[in-house]
Amino acid sequence: MNIDIVTTYPLWLIIFCLLLGIAYAVILYYKETGNDFNNWLKWVMAVLRTTVVALIAFLLLNPLLKSISRYTEKPVIILAQDNSQSIATVKDSSYYQGEFMQELIEFADRLESSYTVKKYLFGDKVTSDFSIDFKDKQTDISQLFDEINNRLSNLNVGAMVLSSDGIFNKGINPVYSSADFDFPVYTIALGDTNIQKDVILNKVNYNRIAYQGNEFPVEVLINGNKCTGLTSKLTISKDGKTLWSKNITFQSDNYFETVQLHLEAKETGLQRYRVGLSPVQDEISISNNHLDIFIDVLEGRQKILILANSPHPDISAMKQAIQSNRNYSVESFIIDDFENQIETYNLIILHGLPSVNNTLKAILEKIEEKAIPVLYFITSQTNLSAFNTLRAGLSITEGNIIYNEALPLLNEEFTLFNLSDRAVRASNGYPPLISPYGNFIVLPSASTLFYQKIGIIPTNEPLVVLNQSLDSKTGIIVGEGIWKWRMSDYSKEGDHEAFNEIFNKLIQYLSLKVDKSFFRVFSKNNFKENENIIIDAEVYNESYELVNDPEVTLAITNSEGKKYTFTFSKSSKAYYLNAGSLPVDNYKYTARVLVGDKILTDNGEFTVSPLNVEKINSIADHNLLYNLAMRRGGEMVYPNQLDELYEKINSREDIKTISYTKKRFTEILNLPWLLMLIIALLSAEWFMRKRAGGY
User: How far apart (Å, rounded) are the C-alpha atoms in residues 436 and 536?
Assistant: First the structure.
């Protein structure tokens, strides 16, 4: 380490600092006559005073202490081992779990004699704990590369050694996610590239929600490797009882088949079905022969009523959009022909109502009494005076009302639900609605989905508004002519998907019942087995304000009656619980909170489903490992070539120790020992003066 003193001023000024100290000492000790000191004592005290004054004057030059340190940094070799289940499912799994692991540890020890070795395990997570057990449920190699970029980007990384079978089922392709690496990547090819005899249940596609009494579709994707001429039985069962079965005959060594079927939803609640394929003789693995699916069966489809003041093409457009969703049933009537009970419907759509000739007084009173959500269409037939009294979330000041052509302009800050990119793009090109021009007053509780755009001029006037009060929800479309939106979709895309999505999102939001309970618990219906169970809760006081003073507890019970108890953590105004991961099973929970002298409870259920993606495909992808190594300037080797790999790394000239210097500037004024030195010198001088009888 080299140390120098530098100042912000020329160093020759130090001479004046010394002269100042000498002048001060001369004046003090050789011009004074009040004290009679020995000559040797005067000399000693003068030297002390000269030193102190010169040192203080020198500090006024703001001197800095410059230190130059030299460091060396050995190259870092990253050793990353795949810890996923796919490696342990091949026929050589005992070798990988035993002999190879010992050889890999010895290889790492050899590297540590010359390099700094950073070890990582990767699978469904990345960890520096090198305890290999091949139990990770997924493989995400790109996550490993992201972690390396974040953790080691400022180090002298010499090379990376990636030990894997090349199978990834999460994240992006590692060949592309490694593009930022400026060091070579060597790959150790594990696993077996040979296709073994195996019956695989690749995937099951299904709707997660069904309605009681309806049939719901199930699509099963089957794969058979080297099973030509063999037969397996595909079954779907529930609670141990077979509901459906079919024999599958494999007609080639790489056979694929898609089986489509329908099941009846008989019971409400969360239902668990097992889809399975019977094993064939000498099959390498039967763990990928079955999957569990979970269907949330609701009591019945939502019933939607469309009431119109008169026939209009909007009615047909709405009906076709609603009918595209199996979760809804829809009926439409001209108001003069309607004789049904209004309370049997879950959502009412009023087109051009209330009108001058049909004020709907009795129907509107029943809607308010039953808190049925309503979607209003403001048309040229709407009686605005009657509409403004409904407190729907929007009022339009009357007067000389005229009608404009208003284009939809999406509100970027709308948060009640999300639209797909396709729906957003489609809405930007929709034709205008015929909308009244007036003074719009929007309640604070309302949210605007689309604003009005008049010609090329954007406005803050609402075109589509949604409002929620404590009792019910309302929606208002300020205009007529949405049938043109549907036709616009077809003319540009050849289908009605974007319009159906927008309209059904409106229907879905409005038809969901307003939860007026004072205690609510929120949870997903289905979790994967490697996923933490996250549950949220809210507590409201009598004024319906969020509070989080009382303690909220939760009891989770599995199918065998075993109970797990938890206490929620408190967030700013609500509650949060991370219950960790749980075994595959069906679970029910009961949450409790004491508010005043009342005990509030909320119940629910969820399932933890198995994650078998590692067992579906166990054929190693050495081609990916080869491409990754070639693109990053390394090589692919096999497990029996670890000695050769060590020599390849050791012989590279670009993997070397680097040295660098580090400069550091420290203000001398801030050094504590300097203050102590000045105090010591002054104290010594004072002691000598007093001992000699001076003053």
Answer: 43
